[in-house]
Design brief:
With 212 residues, the chain is mostly helical. The chain has helices at residues 17-22, 38-42, 53-62, 65-69, 73-76, 82-86, 93-106, 114-129, 134-144, 147-152, 154-162, 177-189. The chain folds into two domains: 10-106, Fumarate Reductase Iron-sulfur Protein, Chain B, domain 2 (Orthogonal Bundle), CATH 1.10.1060; 114-189, no CATH class. Helix 8 packs across helix 9. The structure holds iron/sulfur cluster (2 copies).
Length: 212
């Protein structure tokens, strides 16, 4: 695994990035990481990631925002919580993966592949109808991933339809969608408790070296 870029000056890094992550729920412990690698060793899917969990934490602290937000690792994370349970510094790594995904979606800086597409459509659909219609989500995701993909799903869709397992023109909807919208609105616009972030341990004038 290699770094996407080598920096020459500290200004090339985003010095506020770690503080932003640390101010999000779950991110507050990020400065306690001792880079022991337990999270990467325990993670069942780290072999499929482009950056191990330990490296994601190290890159966040060092200010490599672009590399972290474009990494596929948070999207590969299955939220099994093994890393969080075993971390000797009690860092909520799983929550940090969620924070990174949220930021990447807000800034539209995530790498385009099927998992973010699924999550994007899932959120849109649940926001709109309160429930998920799998057939429609499948079609939307397949369309995003190319016409070839969409066509390759036709035989399976036909089989499912014949056995009444797929309803193309049916949309699942919550009865009281307004209640869900009120909850979502309150979450997004209501008051937030921000925990104080610990000061950066990266001394000014230096950058932290992060290896795989
Ligand atoms: S297990 Fe915890 S302390 Fe060790 S590298 Fe991972 S996040 Fe850091
Ligand atoms: S929660 Fe995610 S990062 Fe942590 S061990 Fe599980 S899959 Fe890996």
């Amino acid at each position: 695994m290699d770094l996407a870029r080598t920096i020459k000056y500290e200004e090339e890094l985003d010095q506020q990035f770690a503080e932003r992550i640390a101010s999000e729920p779950g991110g507050e412990g990020i400065w306690d990481c001792i880079q022991c690698g337990t999270c990467s060793a325990i993670c069942p899917v780290s072999i499929y990631m482009d950056k191990t969990p330990r490296r994601i934490i190290g890159l966040i602290r060092a200010g490599f925002k672009d590399e972290v937000l474009s990494s596929i690792s948070p999207w590969i994370c299955t939220s099994c919580y093994s890393c969080t349970v075993d971390c000797p510094a009690k860092i909520k790594i799983t929550d940090i993966m969620f924070v990174v995904k949220r930021m990447a979606m807000q800034e539209k800086s995530y790498r385009r592949f099927v998992i973010p597409d699924i999550e994007e459509e899932f959120v849109k659909m649940v926001r709109k109808n309160g429930r998920l219609t799998e057939s429609k989500m499948g079609i939307k995701v397949a369309r995003k991933s190319g016409i070839g993909n969409l066509l390759s799903m036709v035989p399976l869709a036909w089989k499912l339809m014949r056995h009444d397992r797929l309803k193309l023109f049916h949309t699942e909807r919550m009865t009281n969608i307004d209640e869900l919208r009120t909850i979502l609105e309150a979450m997004e616009t209501g008051p937030r408790v921000t925990l104080p972030a610990k000061p950066s341990v990266v001394p000014t004038g230096h950058h932290q070296e992060v290896t795989a």
